[in-house]
Design a protein that fits this description.
Elements: E1 11-14, H1 19-31, E2 35-39, E3 47-48, E4 51-54, H2 57-64, E5 68-71, H3 75-87, E6 92-95, H4 102-112, E7 118-120, E8 126-129, E9 133-136, E10 145-152, H5 155-167, E11 172-177, H6 188-196, E12 203-209, H7 214-225, E13 230-235, H8 259-268, E14 272-273, H9 280-291
Parallel strand pairs: 1-2, 1-5, 2-4, 5-6, 6-7, 10-11, 10-12, 12-13, 13-14
Antiparallel strand pairs: 3-4, 8-9, 8-11
Helix pairs in contact: 3-4, 5-9, 6-7, 7-8
Amino acid sequence: MSVLVNKDSKVIVQGFTGTEGTFHASQMLEYGTQVVGGVTPGKGGQTHLDRPVFNTVADAVKATGANVSIIFVPPAFAADAVFEAANAGIELIVCITEGIPVQDMVKVKSFLEGKSARLIGPNCPGVITAEQAKVGIMPGFIFKAGRVGIVSKSGTLTYEAADQVVKAGLGISTAIGIGGDPIIGTTTKEAVELLMNDPETDAIIMIGEIGGSMEADAAKWIKENNRKPVVGFIAGQTAPAGRRMGHAGAIIGGADDTAAAKMKILAENGVTVVASPADIGKTLAEVLSKGK
C-alpha cells in the first residue's frame, strides 16, 4: 500500500508542452512514474516526450485511463484546470502553480466539496512515493524507500527532511508537499491522517510554518488518534508579526499564528518538536529507537 500515488498511478500533465511541463514530465518519467500523456489545448493529436497530447483532460482520461493529473499552467488558468480535471474524473489533482488568486481558490475549494477528487496544492512541490512514483518537482534522487512519511508546507524543507531521514539509515514511504497558500486542497491534518492510516508508514515528520491554524488542528487530531511517533518543525521562528514570509499563507495574524505558539501546541499534543530543521533526522531516529 502507499499514500496517494504509487507505481500503478496513471499520470497526465496539464500544460504538458510548456517549458515547465516538459522539464518536469521528463524528470517524472526518468524517476519511473507512469506518465501516460498530457493536455495542451490546440495540440491534440501530437506526440510529446513519446507520449500523446490531448486537447482536453476528458479526452486524455478516455484514451489512457489516467487517474492522476499534475498542473503546470499559469495562475490565471489554474482554477479552470482544476475544474476540468475534477469534472473528467481525475482522482488526485496536484497543482504546482504559484500565485493563484485567493478568490479563485475559494471557488476551487467550494467546487471540490462533495467531489471524489482530492487536490494537493497549489504552490506545492507535489507528492512522491519513494522509488515508485514522483508527481511533482522534487529532486527524486533524494527520496529512498522506507517507512517514514512527510507532510510539509515547504518544498525545500521537504527535501532537507528526506535527505536527513535517508542519511539516518531510514527512508521515505510518501512525502506530501501540501503547499503554503492560505487556501489549499489538502490540509496538514488530512495529510497526517492519510499517513497515520498507512500500514507502510511507521513514523511521520510534520513541517509547518507561521500563519493559519492547520498545524494546531493537526496536533489536536494527533493527540486523539496517535498510533505512530510524530516529529514536528515550525518554520519562521524569527518572523515579525504582520509581515508575509515567503509563502502567501506565512503571515502572523494573531498570537496563535507565531512559530513559538505553534511549537507549544504541538508539544502539548504529543508531537516531538525540534527547534532547528538540522535536527529532524537525528531526532526521528532517536524517537524510533526508544520505541523499539
